[in-house]
Write a structure and sequence with these properties.
alpha+beta; four-stranded antiparallel β-sheet; 49% helix; cNMP-bd_dom_sf; RmlC-like_jellyroll; cNMP-bd_dom; Crp/Fnr family transcriptional regulator
Length: 193
Amino acid sequence: MEKLLNIYNTIEGLSQEEAQYHVSQFEKVIFAKKTIILREGTVEDYLYFIDKGIIRFFVNKIHPTEPSKEITFSLISENMFCSAYDSFITRKPCAYNVETVQETFMYRIHFDDLQKLYERSKVGNYLGRISAENLYVRKTQREISLLMHSAEERYTNLAKAYPHFIREIPLKHIASYIGITPQALSRIRKQNL
């Protein structure tokens, strides 16, 4: 809980007592490796803060003449907030899945409890805004990367920004995330050795 409290402690003008109160509204949860936290078709009820671990967001691409496959479109790791945020804020079923890549330790707050924090103080609103902004920035950066960079550049940029992803995430998920096949990723990795 220390990492989450540290985030609250960076908020200017927030007392230690108020920071402690906000953090106390989160519950600690631990998920085993490869646990589906949210399944497609269900509503997201939680905003999570990842203390340790990695989460992936993926869709199941189903085509009538091809085998179905999972496409990873987001990877989130420690010291980050995460959620199926579109479902969380609209209260509508999610169109994708959220899964742990490894054993993951998180703190979560239920939608209703977060609404109470929003009503109680401006800090709650600030945290919600910061979480949404961070998720938006990551999404936009990935979209631009897919449009502007080669597969090799996307891999190199990911390895520089998040070297632990390369070490800790199965290559099939890395390949899917950067928009290439596992075979193409193997070729890129061989060239970069």
